[in-house]
Design brief:
Blueprint (H helix, E strand, L loop, with lengths): L1 H4 L14 H12 L5 H14 L4 H15 L4 H23 L3 H14 L4 H14 L2 H14 L4 H13 L3 H14 L4 H18 L9 H6 L4 H8 L5 H17 L4 H13 L3 H11 L9 H28 L4 H28 L4 H13 L3 H11 L6 H14 L3 H14 L5 H16 L3 H14 L6 H13 L2
Helix pairs in contact: 2-3, 3-4, 4-8, 5-6, 5-7, 6-7, 7-8, 8-9, 9-10, 9-11, 10-11, 14-15, 15-16, 16-17, 17-18, 18-19, 19-20, 19-21, 20-21, 21-22, 21-23, 22-23, 23-24, 24-25
Length: 479
Amino acid sequence: MAEETKPQEIIEEKIKDLDPRFIRQLESAEKSIDKNPAYVIDICSTVLAKHPSCVEVRKILRQAQFKKYGKGNPIAKFSAQIQGAIFGFKATGMIKKSQALEVMAEAEKMLAVCPQNSAALRVLAKAAESLGYWGTSASAYQSIAQFEPNNEKNLIAFGNALVKNQQPDEAMQVCEKILRKNPANGDAQALARSASVVKTMVKGNWENQDEDFKKKLKNSEESVDLEKAASLVSDEETLTRMVEKLKAQIETDPENVNLYRDICGNLRTLKRYDEALEFVRKARQQPLGKSDSTLEKLEHDFIVSSMDVKIAELSQKLESNPKDTAIATELEELKKKEHSYKVENARDMVERYPNDYNYRFIYGTLMFEEGKLDEAIMQFQLSQRNPKVRMQSLLGLGRAFIAGKKFDLAVDQLETAKKESKLMNDSKKEIIYELASAYELMGQMDKAFNEYKEIYSADISYKDVSAKINAYYASKSGK
């Protein structure tokens, strides 16, 4: 990664450290940002040409750009995104050749035309990261977040840059935004732990202007844990030590629910699900944990994960001893137990949270697996209201209608799903494959062939599509 090769000792400049003439120009420019943003852009560009690491100037520049161009023309914005994406490929090579400053300058030229060019902003961020300009990198990701507020991948990158720039409180705010919408986001959970570690370091006055930060960490007995956590690197030994320290902290501060979250996150990574289950249950007994639905979901996840591990272990044993009926019986019983638990939990969650359509999707999927088609259809019809599971819900409806031999209804749902799926990814291939199957079962072979052909054109190796296409052509040539 870029951060492994960059010179970490580089520090970004502040406006107060610049030439007094530049400071006066910038002070004057800032006052004109509302009335004359073009003037501000010129001043900031001039300063950045000489002081590219001054993130404060770059932030003023971005404000002026947004002030002047706003959202911009949609056509111009689309064109700018294409140019930014193309430049992104070239920029990767330039960064490797130590031409990061040239990349940043070129990215700024694109942003001068359209400040909502997310591709150019990402290029700027990557180039800044390679130089250790973490404030600049964070600023670029923050700009993207202004017009792509729900882009979790960008928010994670933004949070990571804030951690590297030793802004743990700001990083935690980013984490909270992600986890409010998606509590199961593992990257956000890991980022929160890293921000917590950096906050501890900053609060403890670890960094000293007269002593190199890294040297001081190396002299500390906790340096390995802190460095690795801060850079989002976690090996088994490090995590195990962190778990032991968190256990000790929980003993002295048993009502701190965040400590339970941290230890559960580490135990999840270590795949010690039974232990994690104990701690999440303790967390739910605390005053702030009793009504926390995310902890409730976490408890369910650990129960299932624990059973999954045992199922995997039994499956491996059975593979080595295929004639062992005792193992086979135990495995079958555990699979049934897991399925029953999932169904019971999903039904309970649907009853308690009727407007949480994600739970309805999960319940519908389980009902489909049990062959209870009407119940599955009802749940999928409701769960499609959630954009996150809409495509899979439509696919579930299609499959349920096919299983019930209502092929025309299946086609309606799958056609809708196909139209709404813009990219030919695995999800869309799955939708088209089921649509083709529905046509095939209806005896409409030409329509089925046209659907299979779409997949074949994009991915010849997908399932048995190649065989179906060859069989169709063979049937035609035999007539």
